[in-house]
Design brief:
By secondary structure, the chain is of the alpha+beta class. A hairpin with a 2-residue loop joins strand 3 and strand 4.
Length: 65
């Protein structure tokens, strides 16, 4: 099993859009992901995988308190 699947992920996971400040992406299952201020928030495993695989998005560093 890969490390990514072994890690516990705190939702939502934030991704930076390298192209647009605002847009809507439609995932293969028809769910919409909204980009606002250059940021998309993935709240499901499917959304995380979709944005991870998308060349125009970069996962933002996790914020620790």
């Amino acid at each position: 099993m890969s490390k990514a699947k072994d890690q516990i992920v705190s939702l939502p996971v934030v991704f930076k859009d390298s192209i647009f400040k605002s847009r809507t992406l439609v995932m293969p299952d028809g769910a919409a992901l909204h980009v606002s201020d250059g940021v998309a928030k993935a709240e499901t495993n499917e959304a995380i995988q979709f944005l991870t695989d998308h060349a125009e998005f970069e996962r933002a560093p996790a914020v620790t308190e």
